[in-house]
Amino acid sequence: MIKTIFWKNNAVVLIDQNALPLAERYVTCKSYQEVISCIKDLTVRGAPAIGVAAAMGAALGALRLPSLQPEKFRHKFFTICGEIAMSRPTARNLFWALERMKKVVDRTRGANQQHLVRQLLHEAKMICSEDIEINRQMGKYGSPLFADGDHVLTHCNAGALATAGYGTALGVLRAAVGQGKKLHVYVDETRPVLQGARLTAWELKKEKIPFTLITDNMAGFLMQQGKINKIIVGADRIAANGDTANKIGTYSLSVLARAHGVPLYIAAPLSTIDVSLKTGKSIPIEERKSEEVTHFKGVRSAPAGTKVYNPAFDVTPARFITAIITEKGVLQKPFGVSIARAVKGEKRS
User: Fold this and answer.
1) pTM of whole model > 0.85?
2) What confidence tens digit (pLDDT) does each residue in 116-170 have?
3) Which of 119, 136, 153 is the last residue of a domain?
4) CA 139, 144, 146, 148: dihedral to nearest 10 degrees?
5) 160 and 296: one domain?
């Protein structure tokens, strides 16, 4: 299994996703500030993986704090969490993980610092291990939606690299293949930084799952030709009504899917759902630096001075989504009802 992120020798170790597919190397973060940098520059990316990185980064920050009285420790730790929270605005899992970490401190208020640090590290490791099990559960519930011979399109990377391991959307396909189903995956390159071409293709090749790489603007033509019969993607934040923020280009695919009668599935853990937001209109959309569009790997591809708009995500309306695959089951429409039930702990499949 691909190890995306893990704790070793009081440091956070991450696979360097910016180096893939040309080199498989790891980055060791010895401070929470280094974790923040890795989240910002996409060394680690994918909502669940960002959540795990945030939790481990917070634990690392706590470990490095000098000896403090309980209330001062709490204040300093919450400040660290606040800094990590500012690294990327869209992925709900980042904030969810930090909320879990802060609850550990509040639950054990007044405890000595050594005990608190141990508890925080335990929680961060739990978030990591739970994520892998959650992904396997999504695979279990989502795999029956895919049949032998399906030709499936995926966008961006929602595999092991986007999580602590196994994957969300790609994890569902991995589970289906593990059941003996023969699938062919069409991989959108995913402009502007090519997470599909660099990361998803790399994962599928390692797993020996048949795939074809296409440019983003080919997807509609393939649907028109009948070469794609299902789509599955991940998510960075899901509103209470099912509106879903995912990598830029997902909304366009949802419109094309609706026009061609192709089902579109979202695979995401419940931690990605933000019930405080009624609709996708309230989801914050990160805008990234212009160099991601004007350059690739440091090589300029647009004239100097070109004006750029570079939103990292778009929002797909719930009405364009066929179903949402979670660790509690496959959520069906109306999503407002099924999401509320799932979040409250009722199994829905």
Assistant:
1) yes
2) 999 999 999 999 999 999 999 999 999 999 999 999 999 999 999 999 999 999 9
3) 136
4) 110
5) yes
